[in-house]
Amino acid sequence: MNYSVIKGSSYVLINAPDMIIHNGTTQTTEKLLNPESEYLKSLPDHIRSFDEVINYLPNQIYIGNHKPEELKNLEQPWLDKKTLDGSRDGRFGEIMPQDEFIGLIKIVDVFDLVKLTKEFTKDVNEKLSIHPLIKEDTVARLKEGEELIDIKNLIEKNGAEGLFHNGELVGCIKRAHDIDENLTAHVLFENLVSKASGVLSALHLIDKYDINPEEIDYVIECSEEACGDMNQRGGGNFAKAIAEFAGLANATGSDIRAFCAAPAHAIVQGASLVQAGTFKNVMIVSGGSTAKLGMNGKDHVKKGIPILEDVIGGFAMLISENDGINPILRTDIVGRHTVGTGSSPQGVISSLVTEPLDRNGLKITDIDKYSVEMQNPDITKPAGAGDVPTSNYKMIAALGVKRGELERSQLNDFIQNHGMEGWAPTQGHIPSGIPYIGFGREDILDGNINRIMIVGKGSLFLGRMTNLFDGISIVIEKNPGITKEEKSVSEEEVRLLVAEAMRDFASHLLKD
Amino acid sequence: MDLEIQGRVVDLVDKYGAENIIVLIGGAEAEAAGLAAETVTAGDPTYAGPLAGVPLGLRVYHVVEPEFKDSVDEQVYEDQISMMEMVLDVDEIISEVSTMRNEFGQFNE
Fold this sequence. Notes:
The structure holds 2 protein chains of 2 kinds. Chain A is α/β, with parallel strands linked by helices.
């Protein structure tokens, strides 16, 4: 089978301290219900500086500057262990500060919904002008800026949502309709954040892997937001909006939604489109969400630690035709949580992990690394949600024991050898399977490992349309090289058949 | 326990009577399971939901507790839960949930 390959993947984070306070749902809910709460009062004291965010090891791993295995030997929690060599520039992407990102939100807005003050515009213009991936004509989209008083008026009288930086009002996002709930400033804020962080991810993918953007045929966007209006609430489509700003002139695209499992669904579909020959190059891309900023903030503040959910995440990857080098996407080793699977963890893990392996004569231990829900335990443990990746590995190992593929005494060894510590921010779809693709691709190319499994899971029940859970998995494998065998054998066969026919024909002629 | 679920517990108790209800917990964390058990027996310890100050004393069990395990089909348990027994801290969960049940339960046989 001529599988598709992973050409590369990019990862970005955006440090958004003011958006934690103004846009994270834990905080906005608290403001609504308990505006005078102790939590809201003490919140600003728990927000990390950009320098702290940069020097936080899990963040440096996310953008590719450090390796996941470094976390294994580092005692948890990691939040007080600075890397010291932290950089905003990463091998896979970058960590963008909030002011530049607000500028980027303005840049990607094509409906003049984002208004920034003159002073802030000037400041951000200077910063974005030296950003290696934001071109001059793009920076020009910032324009001159507005008077602060006009922005205040839009917020107070016209339902606009404020944009804050360092505690100061620096701009706003206007509503796009007077009564349509789907075009309120709040919804547009979240959508523009998702679009801007998606664009940044796409730009890094193109840059880091020297990709010709015009060769990309199709984009699958897999975030957790929805854009549309009152007549089609989730009409779409972020994919094409991102493609436009990333310079993908020859691409179209569409959005896939499946809660946190969306990126894994997107990979399976992208791989299938390329393998089928429908498209040559498919980009998978997703921006992040502001709603989840500070989601577990109450627990973090209660435990006296900083708010660790202070970054918006994004990623992109390119799936292309088989080049004989890059790791292949095994579309024949895909696991699915089906309607009939049920919701027990045992059923879930069996359907996602062992069922596709069984179909292909593989054992649990034949997968070198599992990339599961890679949430950073620094964030989840203080919130009482435990160590999510470790729980996943324990479940896979326990299933291995039940199936007789592992001894019970080997349970911990399995977790050590086939698992990883989590380093991804809790942005829903961002930790779900995809954080390891960058390192996994390199580990396979370097010959360290042969096979990884990406496992995406999603909590569909949150949307109240079904009680069902969801998940999909796919195996990525070392490229055996393009074998021309099939083709040459068939050519040879044709030659033999022709020769035989000629002989037959000749013998008939002789007989005549 | 989230506020909406607490509301559903209240509704079910109103409809069927506290003595006719068993609450089954499937949570993976002992502490969270203990909190859920506390909520449906002694009342919501966070004083945020409909069960704040409402000591229902319901029968409450975690699915890894022997009382539940011994009363269901062995094969179903094997297929659906046995793997998780290996993963979870079963002793800790049993201790948390049974403590709440024994202390605040009003229908303990």
